[in-house]
Amino acid sequence: MVELLRKPAGLNGKIHDITPASANWGFVGFGLYKLGAGDEAREVTGDREVILVLVEGKAQITAAGQAFGVLGERMDVFERTPPHCVYVPGGADWSAVATTACTLAVCSAPGGTDRGAAIIGPAGIATTPRGTGANTRYINNIAMEDRDVADSLLVTEVFTPDGNWSSYPPHRHDEDDYPRMTYLEETYYHRLNPSQGYGIQRVFTQDGSLDETMAVSNEDVVLVPKGHHPCGVPYGYEMYYLNVMAGPRRAWRFENHPDHDWIYQRDNG
Length: 269
What we know:
Blueprint: E1 5-6, E2 13-18, H1 20-23, E3 29-35, E4 40-44, E5 48-56, E6 59-63, E7 66-71, E8 85-88, E9 93-98, E10 102-110, E11 118-121, E12 127-130, E13 137-143, E14 154-160, E15 165-166, E16 171-172, E17 185-193, E18 198-204, E19 211-217, E20 221-224, E21 231-232, E22 238-246, E23 255-256, H2 261-268
Antiparallel strand pairs: 1-20, 2-3, 3-10, 4-9, 5-8, 5-10, 6-7, 6-9, 8-11, 12-13, 13-14, 14-22, 15-21, 16-23, 17-20, 17-22, 18-19, 18-21
């Protein structure tokens, strides 16, 4: 079994580089750069589309021959404001030159060349609450299916207040059976505030063939190849995560765990 918990490879440069090959799956890629002012990141998309998310800080972005200037406004991810984001099609290149300390996420999945490079955030992204009680969290839907901004990618941010749970009740999207469910691989890039905190994420299937519970630290990434995948954060700490999903169909259809679906039905009945 591929290791689901991925630790950052250092403090600077490209600290995460998750590819379909390294994750042993077929669709999702996730990279993360930690840049100082003046540092540059540059890549070629090949047969994949990319969404660049300025998690924190500012950078001068060029993509597919277009200069988008200096983007970024959120200097601390826990400001909870919508991020600046850029879509880059397949068959193109992109570069980012940091003008401040900058955290840049590179979300990728199979994609074509028909779409042009474009700014897709923060305009069009609204921070919205989801859930009730200790299940309350706040969502920035960067590129979910209601936004026609990508061929394959589904990307969202979630802010979980201290003591709360997210991706809960436990749910899964690991069968290609639309419209009942869609097969979507998923990565979680976690941040904690204060940064010395920790969260808990469990990835498990109903038949028990996969059941891992992980303590996630600041800057960790968790892979979700299948199964249910709730996460929570202790009192005193906030959790942020950036989700990247992709599969055969650009749609998010899931089922809650049958033992815990009553929570959803109670809160939404």
